[in-house]
DUF5060 domain-containing protein
Amino acid sequence: MTVRRRRPLYHSHTSPAFTKQRNPEMLVSPSTLNIAKWSRAEFVFEAESDPSHFTQSWVTATFSNGDDQKVVRGFYDDGGRFLLRFMPQSEGIWTFRTESNIASLSGITGSVNCTPAGAEATGPIETDETFHFRTASGKAWYPFGTTAYVWNYQSDAVQEQTLASLAASPFNKIRMCVFPKHYTYNFKEPQRFPFPGNITDGFDFSRFDCAFFHQLENQIDALKDRGIEADLIIFHPYDRWGFAEMDAETDRRYVEYLVARLSSFSNVWWSLANEFDLLRKKPMSFWDGVFKQITADDPYGHLISIHNWHNPPIHYTSNDHWYDQTDPLITHASIQHHDLWFVPGWREQFSKPIVIDECRYEGDVDCGWGNISGRKMLNLTWEGVCAGGYVTHGESYLSDDEIIWWSHGGRLKGESPERIAFLRNILEEGEAKRLSPWKGRSHSQWDVTIGHMGDDYWLLWFGDSQPGFKLLTMLPEGKEFAVEIIDAWAMTVERVTGTWRSGDRLPLPGRPGIALRMTAV
Amino acid sequence: MTVRRRRPLYHSHTSPAFTKQRNPEMLVSPSTLNIAKWSRAEFVFEAESDPSHFTQSWVTATFSNGDDQKVVRGFYDDGGRFLLRFMPQSEGIWTFRTESNIASLSGITGSVNCTPAGAEATGPIETDETFHFRTASGKAWYPFGTTAYVWNYQSDAVQEQTLASLAASPFNKIRMCVFPKHYTYNFKEPQRFPFPGNITDGFDFSRFDCAFFHQLENQIDALKDRGIEADLIIFHPYDRWGFAEMDAETDRRYVEYLVARLSSFSNVWWSLANEFDLLRKKPMSFWDGVFKQITADDPYGHLISIHNWHNPPIHYTSNDHWYDQTDPLITHASIQHHDLWFVPGWREQFSKPIVIDECRYEGDVDCGWGNISGRKMLNLTWEGVCAGGYVTHGESYLSDDEIIWWSHGGRLKGESPERIAFLRNILEEGEAKRLSPWKGRSHSQWDVTIGHMGDDYWLLWFGDSQPGFKLLTMLPEGKEFAVEIIDAWAMTVERVTGTWRSGDRLPLPGRPGIALRMTAV
């Protein structure tokens, strides 16, 4: 594993810097850590080495900075070490005090001096203006995700290649699993698992394999270094090891442990499951419980979602196999669907950001989810964005080495990524984009997805349609617009001569793959 | 108007052949008409010339042939003439006896000798095996419709061109309106209307313009001569003359008159409306009433449907703007929708043939419904057919003369018709096709629409997807299949060497537009 940890971990020990002390206000010790906002402090508390700590022991710390208070859960890292990690979200002195059912770990106090974030630091991603996202630092942020479910389980060489591919790609979020994946093209046995053991001898669900988690943490940090959010899939159904059917207490402890270990990582998102509705033994009430558990345990309020399998397959009027995406604990709807026509409806229905985390992948495998053309992948991405949503990329081209991006990472081979980069740049240049779908006559929009920001910025996507002209009836009266014709495939932007008004008849190329950008002048 | 009436109309007069007679059994007169099954007899009864007949007078006749009995409504054809038309559906002697509120027209008796249909005659189209159609003569029939809403209102030259285009096309059904159309590209004032009058002076809704109906009848016969069903749209919302907002009694009388005049035409289908939900002043109960009225009045049970405007536009879970297509009076669901993914669901939901009468048109006009590519039009047609439904074509290319097929007819310019002919031939060759959508794993069918007849015939459509191979998991165990790779655009059929079994890995071209035909050997 050659992923390097570039971000320093701040270690301190229970002695001598931190002493049992009943009065935390007194405790701004000389050894107070200086740590930039949204970075991670890690405290190491020593105890006897005993695997029963995994199930029997707990330690928490309450961090306070003025009125701001966070209760942070520590966790047992094996070998007699308890770790407790903290990500400060505001500047100033944070004091803390521990509690534990181990006497020596209870009442420990200390402090952290949170200094301003670096100019490049963004902090965690948050939702913004109901349907959109921003960085904690306040900048508009547009998810251009991709998917490589178990890149973290591949050889070091493939992992390095994945990170290099990501760094050169437009993608700023990756969907990835904690558990290994059992599925077509995914039958190699991993070397290490979240629990100690192997498929032959079984797993010890009363412990965790901490080396596995150290590795996962390095991978998440490596993503962070490349500006990529880790949309971490906590459960999934592609399983031969038993991780999809653990007992309720093991599930609970696993979720608790994961959140204790990882919530201090600023680039983590919680995805409760991929295709939760294929985890057939888990009832809806299970997912309700996990949402509550994570929301209670995560002091930082990371983005949290759940991802469906089923489209409405038979009766399009039925959506009872969709998790109730209106649940206020869900920060954004993480949807699988092939038809992005419905994005405006989902916005209205769910009142939160719509992220189509799967709408099929560019590729040529023998699976319905994985053989659309690069043009179709690009078409869907544009359509989703102009409808006021966001679309996650995936790629599944057949390969002799069976390293397929969608699952293993490796090398991107498709035609869509560079063109998705072109679209991302259109969103990122200039003022922050907060696109809403135009609520004009829906019928005329079979051929075009119209996104706009108020009256002054319009982004239209014609997709497969090929109009020979467009009446600019959507524009408000009394304003002049600069109009640019964008060829999304050729990645060209051509300014149309003059300025244009509501109702004007704009000639169009009459071929597929055309977008319009119209900006008030 | 140069459309010629090729089919003879059998005229007889009230005297001397038909006499008032109380005992119809006695009345096989020497002048009994000989008429082939599914042809049309027309009886002319004379009365005083008086326009009040349109509203005040009625005549019906009960036709009997053994136990078979039909009550047929006559109608006033102006100028003192009442007409009564009859289409026998079984061979033998049909006797009839009239009733009327005009004394001289009541109690008239006569007879018709129904002879066998000619070898080419098909009779009316009927539904068959829940989801399909056949001719009354018992042959499988596949709707490959097109749309030219008001071809019947165009100049004689354009009408002739339309009929020539249809004769050379794959289309065997046309959607057309009784009323003229007011809509973009449709602003010319017609010369004649179903009611006497004009837009300046208004219309006399207490009469009908019989010359208009004679012309319409010639047009329907001209379609019949070319093997084309007239899917007659009775109401529509594109109106500046007031036909969309007539009073309830005028609506009722108009429907009654239409059915009386046209139900004896073997190639008529009743389409209650195009985009009924845009006729905003007509409540659902109005349509319920029209279904009941036509079903009661049409002695022959012609196909009858109603066509929606709205897609589920916002909440995809809502379908309350769709007419209840499960109503047993509706023979087939005439649907407008852009996404044929839902065809299998509609089949289950409605349990009747699914005809997508609008899924957008090939063309380049500035309207969402009218600028898809020829490839997309073809893709939709294949998708609908392989899903066990049927798809209606349309074409709307911009034209200097503003003669656009979708509305005016004229000349077909698109790339899809010849390729739709190729598909129609695939259905028509060999045994009757009764395709059902395969109920295998729906998820894997994002890339392919799988139609089949039992175990032995499979037709797969990959559309935009581009798999590099296909595992033939859908085939039943223990059978061998001949496999053909069809390029729907190039219109080629290539037999793959050897025979194939369930689970085999079939190499595919890895490009869009591919179908597979697999037949048990």
Q: What stands out?
A: The two ends of chain A are 53 Å apart (CA to CA). Confidence is low (pLDDT under 50) at residues 1-30, 312-320 of chain A. The CA atoms of residues 259 and 298 of chain A lie 6 Å apart. Chain A has three domains: 24-115, 125-428, 438-520.
